[in-house]
């Protein structure tokens, strides 16, 4: 299986040490190996692997260091034995390794909640993903993404009843533990639902981050923006003008913030006004035209990576969901490292665009990796013109080999 291509990336990242630390068991025990199976399931973007106790391609259980594919009951007991705090500690440790590997720039961050369809039997608040969709039970994940490198930093989880204002402080604290930025060094881009007085007060006084969020276009806000005199705006170019002024929430007059007003259009009938709130003064042109549009990268991340394990949830037991989703975070990290290998450029494209020799070689590696890892090899005896074929390794399966052989020779 192609999952063997992740083995070097596990070694580079330090996955095994992370899993041993999370499970609190040495490598000779089964717990870290069961956790590694969860990582590989997420990397394959599959569900229900454990139902049949096996896979169509052999070698998956060996890649996990096990002689079997673990059952759903074994995985459930593994996740149930660990707490939310342990899963968060694993995320922080992973974040430290990724920061040291250059996966994060740590200057521009994006936060956003993501609703996963839940199949829990409990009575929970239902969420409607759009106006035409049916309201369903969900579990919320709150992600923080590096908007420059498009990589997740950390996430928290909660039931559908928890608000963004209640969940975001915990997420910001985890992100600060990972990135350790100096005050004012990093800017967090948020959505309209994050524009609350309590959240801005927390970000300004208890975190090193600057926070920027758009304001909801309520009728009251529209009236306030229309009362701003035209001379208060600075014309940037045709159809765009900006203004910046001090701002306070009505219930928190002591919290000094800055409001950025964006005016688009020409003529009184075509004008559109939008407002943003920020904890610190800034260059509004750079902020509105270059940095804030990068917030949409977190939506792109959900669309492209949710199949790793953030698309649906089978239970509302948060400590179980935390552990499972954190393993998907590990899978995303090693998959990214695999795509960055300069020696294998075709991994960055789709399979349909791979050159035929490379796709054949990947198939050979997938079918023969168990043989290459189990049998002693003598690399010095490899012929310089060695060109393996699928037939070569099918003949060299472990069941048909009674004595060790060197690579490049058939039986």
Task: Describe the overall structure.
With 411 residues, the protein is α+β, with helices and mostly antiparallel strands. It folds into 3 domains: 2-81, no CATH class; 87-305, Transposase Inhibitor Protein From Tn5, Chain A, domain 1 (Alpha-Beta Complex); 351-400, no CATH class. The protein contains 14 helices and 11 strands. The protein has helices spanning 7-13, 15-23, 31-44, 60-63, 72-80, 84-100, 164-179, 197-206, 219-226, 284-291, 297-305, 318-339, 356-374, 390-395; strands at 108-118, 126-127, 136-146, 151-159, 187-189, 210-214, 234-237, 240-249, 252-264, 272-278, 312-313. Strands 1, 2, 3, 4, 5, 6, 7, 8, 9, 10 and 11 form an 11-stranded mixed beta sheet that branches. Helix 3 (31-44) packs across helix 12 (318-339) and helix 6 (84-100) packs across helix 7 (164-179). The longest helix is centred in the last third of the chain and has 22 residues, at 318-339. The protein is elongated. Residues 348-411 have low confidence and may be disordered.
């Amino acid at each position: 299986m192609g999952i063997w291509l992740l083995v070097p990336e596990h070694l580079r990242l330090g996955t095994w040490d992370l899993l041993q630390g999370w499970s609190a068991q040495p490598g000779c025990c089964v717990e870290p190996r069961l956790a590694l199976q969860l990582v590989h399931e997420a990397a394959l973007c599959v569900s229900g692997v454990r139902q049949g106790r096996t896979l169509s391609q052999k070698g998956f259980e060996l890649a996990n260091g096990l002689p079997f594919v673990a059952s759903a009951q074994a995985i459930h007991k593994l996740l149930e034995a660990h707490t939310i705090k342990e899963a968060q500690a694993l995320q922080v440790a992973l974040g430290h390794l990724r920061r040291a590997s250059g996966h994060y720039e740590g200057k521009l961050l994006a936060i956003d909640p993501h609703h996963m369809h839940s199949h829990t039997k409990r009575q929970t608040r239902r969420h409607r993903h759009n106006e035409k969709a049916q309201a369903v039970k969900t579990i919320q994940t709150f992600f923080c993404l590096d908007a420059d490198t498009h990589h997740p930093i950390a996430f928290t989880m909660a039931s559908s009843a928890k608000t963004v204002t209640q969940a975001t402080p915990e997420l910001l604290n985890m992100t600060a533990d990972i990135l350790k930025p100096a005050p004012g060094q990093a800017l967090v881009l948020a959505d309209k639902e994050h524009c609350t007085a309590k959240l801005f007060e927390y970000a300004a006084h208890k975190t090193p981050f600057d926070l920027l969020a758009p304001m909801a276009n309520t009728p009251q806000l529209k009236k306030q923006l229309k009362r701003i005199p035209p001379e208060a705006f600075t014309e940037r170019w045709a159809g765009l003008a900006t203004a910046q002024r001090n701002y306070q929430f009505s219930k928190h007059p002591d919290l000094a913030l800055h409001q950025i007003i964006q005016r688009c259009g020409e003529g009184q009938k075509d004008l559109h006004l939008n407002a943003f709130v920020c904890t610190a003064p800034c260059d509004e042109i750079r902020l509105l035209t270059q940095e804030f549009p990068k917030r949409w990268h977190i939506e792109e991340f959900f669309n492209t990576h949710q199949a790793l394990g953030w698309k649906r949830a089978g239970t509302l037991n948060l400590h179980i969901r935390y552990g499972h989703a954190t393993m998907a975070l590990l899978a995303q990290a090693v998959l990214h490292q695999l795509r960055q290998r300069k020696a294998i450029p075709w991994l960055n494209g789709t399979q349909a665009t791979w050159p035929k020799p490379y796709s054949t070689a990947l198939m050979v590696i997938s079918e023969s990796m168990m043989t290459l890892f189990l049998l002693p090899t003598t690399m010095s005896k490899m012929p310089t013109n060695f060109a393996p074929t699928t037939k070569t390794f099918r003949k060299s399966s472990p069941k048909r080999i009674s004595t060790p052989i060197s690579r490049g020779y058939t039986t």
